Amino acid sequence: MKWNKQEWDRAIKLLSEVAEYESSCIEYTVKPTTTNSWEEFKKETKKNGYITVSMDGCNTSIYGNAIVNRMARIWHDKVHLNNNLSFSLKDEIEVTKIQQEDIYNYVQEVKMKNDQDFNIKILELAQKIIYIDVAEQLKYYYKHKKFVENQKAFVQNILYNEG
């Protein structure tokens, strides 16, 4: 997909808006790290009544902002919990598909009503970015047994090479 910096910035702004919208009214706490176990995450969330999010990797996230990154993680975890989807690659891809639907629905319900100049290419780019940010990073993790060091560069590199 061909894209430029202005389109990237608009897609990230859209993702930030959706993350804020989808994470509103959800109770959470922040810790330096969290569990990688779906069962532990589910049990802890049920017991505590709130989602625990990690702040690992916020400096290099696609959002460029720790608060927005936190909201994006809350949104992502909410999808896991609401749909009983584990942290397996198969389920993470399903979570991403639901997030892509959330982005589409937000555009239909909010953006198109308030922004007559909204470009559908930005929607498509945002959906592609969220897929790469979740699914491709997880594939990288399984292959290399470590997380991506610079999430933004990783996503942009894949987008650039696909274009």
Structural class category: mainly alpha
- Distance between the amino and carboxyl termini: 4 Å
What's the shape?
globular
Q: What summary fits the major beta sheet?
A: 2 strands, parallel
Whole-angstrom Rg: 15 Å
Provide the domain count: 1
Strand order within the widest sheet?
Answer: 1-2
Strand fraction equals under 5%
Give the count of helical stretches. Answer: 6
Low-confidence stretches: none
Helix and strand run: HEHEHHHH
Supply database-style keywords:
163 residues, mainly alpha, two-stranded parallel sheet, globular
Can you give me a brief rundown of this structure?
This protein has 163 residues and is mostly helical. The protein contains six helices and two strands, in the order αβαβαααα.
Chart the SSEs and their pairings:
Layout: H1 5-23, E1 28-31, H2 38-48, E2 51-54, H3 66-83, H4 89-114, H5 120-144, H6 151-162
Parallel strand pairs: 1-2
Task: Give a description of the structure.
Helix content is 68%, strand content 5%. With 163 residues, the protein is mainly alpha-helical. The chain has one domain. Helix 1 (5-23) crosses helix 3 and helix 3 (66-83) packs across helix 4 (89-114). It is globular.
